[in-house]
Specification:
endopeptidase fold (from Nostoc punctiforme); six-stranded antiparallel beta sheet; 33% helix; globular; 335 residues; alpha+beta; 2 domains; 11 helices
């Protein structure tokens, strides 16, 4: 039997934490270190925590830390990756043994507790920055690559290693951290009326053919070549998965980027207990590897453009095994 509820785990951790001792030990003034205050959309439970931990050293900022956590786990504190990384900051247990902090002072270092894991991620970023400070190239990119692939690999390759996963990781986090709501955008998530409008627009496209690269804010279009399996959309008028989401939210007055991964970066993750029709459902092993998006319709079902040879249709949320996150589109971006 198909489940009628989402198959991902909810968020329910407390946000209160004291990191003054950590900041003092790093020799950083929490009111002047790093860059501007947090402007990215994050779950309210973690906002103050990220604001404080994001000033651990001058190499990071609240926005950078928020972008990293979004990339790592989608802000889900009990996520476990296929490789065995754990918690909201996706520490490997061995790395946690060396770098995990008892940041909330409760007498234990808990990889699953955001009060410990978020400040630990900030401190580990700062430590990584120091380890690779003499490596040529962009300092922030090298720091992020060290967090993902290890400082030794960054040193070995003289910069970001030539691994597709790490390169996408660095690119996505940097772009997300640097994103700012454009002029005229409130930066707030789509409201229920906008979500309903978007969902209605998507439902009007039921039966439209799948077209790789197809779809725009105006409706179905001919696509491009080629899908990972070599299928071309150049002769098919229709939508791919992200084209459908882009079109539907354009009808609600919200412009989304073109790809599923970029749409996730332009959305705010939501607690699965707070899901509502119109929210976007993303699939992939990480933020940078997202390969599919659908729109939640309720009861554990989505509307989506699944793959070449199909059409816009309803599918259960667990139609793919790598459900990553549910998120709500936020600020407007240029298409």
């Amino acid at each position: 039997m198909r489940p009628t509820t989402p198959v991902i785990v909810g968020i329910g951790a407390s946000a209160a934490v004291v990191v003054a001792a950590l900041v003092q030990a790093a020799g950083v003034d929490p009111f002047t270190a790093g860059s501007a205050a947090l402007s990215l959309s994050v779950p309210a439970a973690y906002k103050s925590l990220i604001e404080e931990a994001g000033h651990t050293c001058s190499d990071i900022s609240p926005n950078l830390l928020a972008a990293l956590l979004k990339q790592e786990s989608g802000f889900i504190p009990d996520r476990t990756s296929p490789a065995g990384a754990e918690g909201i900051a996706q520490f490997m247990p061995s790395t946690w043994e060396n770098h995990g902090l008892d940041a909330n002072g409760d007498g234990k270092r808990d990889i699953w507790d955001p009060q410990d894991a978020i400040p630990s991620a900030a401190k580990y970023l700062c430590d990584s920055a120091q380890e690779v400070k003499n490596v040529p190239g962009d300092k922030t990119a090298n720091m992020l690559a060290a967090y993902n692939a290890g400082a030794d690999r960054v040193k070995k390759f003289g910069g970001v290693p030539p691994y597709k996963e790490t390169q996408n990781y660095v690119k996505t986090i940097t772009a997300t951290a640097n994103a700012a709501p454009p002029t005229g955008s409130s930066g707030t998530p789509a409201n229920s009326g906008q979500a309903s409008t978007a969902l209605a627009a998507a439902q009007q496209m039921l039966g439209t053919p799948y077209s790789w690269g197809g779809g725009s804010a105006s409706g179905p279009t001919k696509g491009t070549c080629c899908s990972p399996n070599g299928r071309s959309g150049a002769s098919v008028t229709g939508f791919d998965c992200s084209g459908l989401a882009l079109y539907a939210y354009a009808k609600a007055g919200i412009s989304l980027p073109r790809t599923a991964a970029a749409q996730y970066a332009a959305s705010e993750p939501v607690d699965p207990d707070d899901m509502r029709p119109g929210d976007l459902v993303f699939y992939g092993s990480s933020g940078s590897s997202i390969h599919h998006v659908g729109m939640y319709v309720g009861g554990g079902w989505i509307i989506n453009a699944p793959r070449p040879g199909t059409e816009v249709r309803y599918d259960p949320m667990d139609t793919m095994s790598d459900l990553f996150a549910v998120a709500r589109p936020t600020h407007t971006q240029e298409i």
